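Curious: why this fold?
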Amino acid sequence: MRDQVFRTRITDLFGIRHPILCGGLFLLADARYVAAAVGVGGMGFITALSFPDDPEDFRREIRKCRTLTGGKPFGVSLAFSARPGMEDRIAPYVAIAAEERVRFVETSGGNPSRFLPILKEAGCIVMHKVPAVRYAETAQRMGVDAICVVGAEAGGHPGIYMVGNMVQAALAARTLTLPLAIGGGMGTGSHLVTALAMGADAILVGSRMLAAREIWAHPAYKERVIGASENDTRVVMQIFRDNHRVLDNEAARAVAALEAAGERDFAAYRALVSGRSTRMAYETGDLSRGMIDLGPAVAFVTESETVEAIFDRLIDEAVAAADRVTALRR
């Protein structure tokens, strides 16, 4: 494990060695993966809605992670939504996170204000993830502890404004006063140094981690990730103002065709975009199906490595990038 090189507000807030956060990868960020991130000086988040059938499965995964980390703090990811019934659906997961005294919570997708008092009373440190600075300002006023702003490059849900991080990261650092992480397109140590230079306190990595050995998905999925380029993603669901950046597979192209035809009945999309289809793709390696979250930073994945090896590489690259800038000064 690399020694600490960068100390920031995020490393202090999370009590971690490196300013690297492993985002809550839907269906993939389980106890083993999160514990690996914690064990090498970063932070990870178990995705709550990866356990849709029984919230108690989420509780068991939290307890498994606590065992794997030897009691070290770790995080969970709670995704909110304004869709009817979604707040009631997420409520049991929020309650479990609070009951289990999970130290760090990543919230995203919608307004967390209803649940913030529950989480704060349980002693949780809450980082809210947003796709635009305007939402970050609102979250800051709500009383969260940190903000993560993701740009258009993000795999998963980059929001509807699609502003790239060369602009958005600098705007966020200029606008916000809370500890700040930047996500979307973060795949190398030079990205870490750039984010810090812009005024951020950490990066959030997602696609860069998808071929990690601790990720449970089928070997065929990891082979596809390793072989993917920055051009192998597609943004779908724009017709519903719910932009989703995913692998450009058969299912994504079918969704895009429905959108091009002007189809606005969600029922026509349901089988293509269901979480169960995505889980089957991860389990079987049949990557023609499902909405498989992926960002262009996948271009930096060249082999399957441990989480520790990826972190070491990121830190080594960051040191080299910082040294290069220093050498250029006159």
Observations:
- DSSP finds 13 helices and ten strands in the chain.
- The longest strand covers residues 125-130.
